[in-house]
Amino acid sequence: MPERTPARPADSVVTGAGILLDHVTKRYPGQARPAVDGLTMEIPAGKTVMLVGPSGCGKTTTLKMINRLIEPSEGRIVVDGDDVTQMNGDRLRRGIGYVIQAGGLFPHMTVATNIGIVPRMLGWDRDRIAARVDELLELVSLDPEQYRDRFPKELSGGQQQRVGVARALAADPPVLLMDEPFGAVDPITRLRLQDELINIQDELQKTIVCVTHDFDEAVKLGDWIAIFDEGAQLVQYDTPERILGNPANEFVENFIGSGAGLKQLTLTRVGDVGMAEAILARPGEPARDVLARIVAAGHGHAVVVDSRERPIQWLSRRKLDRLQTIGSTPDPGLPVVGSRATLSDALDTMLVSSAGAALVTGRRDVFRGVIDIKTVMDAIGRSQDTAAMDSTDAPVGLNTGIFGAVTTDEVASADTPGPGTGTGDTPAAQ
Amino acid sequence: MLDFLGDRYEQILFSSWQHFSLVLQCLLMATVLAVVIAALVYRSPALTGVVNSVSAIGLTIPSFALIGLLISPFGFGVLPAVIVVAFFATLPILRNAVVGLSGVAPTVVEAARGIGMSRFRTLVQIELPLAWPIILTGIRVSAQMVMGVAAVAAYALGPGLGGFIFSGLSRLGGANSFESVVTGVVGVIILALVLDLLLVGLGRLTIPRGIRA
Questions:
Q1: Residues A376 and A402 in one domain
Q2: Is A364 in the B-facing interface, judged by CB distances under 8 Å?
Q3: Exposed, middle or buried, A406 (CB in 10 Å: 0-12/13-18/19+)?
Q4: Percent of chain A having pLDDT more than 90?
Q5: Which residues of B touch A (CB under 8 A)?
Q6: Per the structure, how many domains does chain A have?
Q7: Is the pLDDT reported for residue A388 higher than 90?
Q8: Threshold 0.90, pTM exceeds
Q9: Which of A105, A118, B76, B114 could form a cystine bridge with A152, CB 3.0-4.6 A?
């Protein structure tokens, strides 16, 4: 998380554009209360903003007003400094990526045609589209040779969703809108797709606005989380750390659900916290020598690694005492986590193992160190400290429905000169 | 029987071709008409209801009665025959086109709009291709039905195999009258089978693999 959060240096390649919703209201005829009421919200360029809230709270309406699939009744939508409220809706949407649940692929078109459809509307030539399709399939981890000419029904749910993301990225739009993108896939595939989206976003730095009802997903993917109540009332708009550590009110607390502390564990990767060294041993060594080494170092265990430095056994003093030489049989129950896993995954693995710690592996499963429960506890403490800090760098987000104080000019002048850079000095909502 | 066929070989072939061509052209016209009407109404539940009732009621009108009614304004000849055949051909296609278009998954349409397709482009590139298998089924039903209707249209002196049937029936018991009727009926059946085969082939060619059942 730390490498993705607020103050990213300006020299990194942000390809996204900032978005401003300016006093946006949506009223449906025949309904007493507006679905979205006077919402003003700034979405910083190159960031992932998650819109969460109970169903029917207007988060999807808010999302669809950004590309004007739903026309706002009042207010302005500003993308990259341009007021897009009056421009041709179809042209606007061609410049904004859109991903829906299950990908929304066109069943009568091949994967390649699906992905190439927006570039074709934009008048790209055939070769350029074909090259772009292959590039995008690589990006979403699908082999172009194998998948290019398949039809959607010949793909699994996860693969369809990947193609959906590829289609949204086809014309390299600065903004990506996602409506419950991973709602229709099984939990394991969902985790993998989330990880992939994080990797893609690290690379591309688009502005992503994503609707979800899954708070854990919001914590995992979001740089910023906007929590909505009925009528798209923006209750809290802040970083995941600060929402977890310092919820604005009881509604947010309830929405977070139990175990806010545990959820903070999903914010940090194992590779980002300190790891303890371990005494290494090789198969074939006399157990007595290894025991002497761990006693000298004051450790309780020794890690046995194979010739490619992959951990195969984890031996306690007592086990070593009973052994003559170190064996080479891998222990299937070894508690191992990858360095890209979250602390939550690590804690899970530790609790299953008897050692109260886990072995961390890096690329190609090479042993990197040991992580124990104390390290995890320290990480929780640190993120609670971060949460207690002032949220002066939070983007603007408020409802005139409740506040009614900020005028259009103030908000607009804070944002329009340099989209996405006006984040720092604007007064925060709460 | 064989003598009858042998003597009128050319006339039978010519009438068969005319019959086939009448049905084919009317079918084409009906398909265009039905798809246009369906595209205009399928998004309104009220209009869809109206169209469905019209096509259900329309099919209960006896074709013989309709052609009788049309003779007084349009006279004898090709025109009333074309009107009757096209009218009956339109109804099943219209019904299927409406069902097919409203059966396209809303998420697919939303995705199309969301990536910047206009209403018209969505209809042409997404909704119609997805509804096409159902529309084509309607065309096949229609084709079978109007083969018979076209035979009845011969009453108004329209072209086709109906002539053999009516002339045979009008002098039943006379020389070759039975042969004449059989020729007409069997000819219509053969044409119907041929056309159905052609339509199945059309389906093979035009329905993308991704949505083939």
A1: no
A2: no
A3: middle
A4: 26
A5: 107-108, 110-118, 121, 126, 129-130, 208-211
A6: 2
A7: no
A8: no
A9: A105
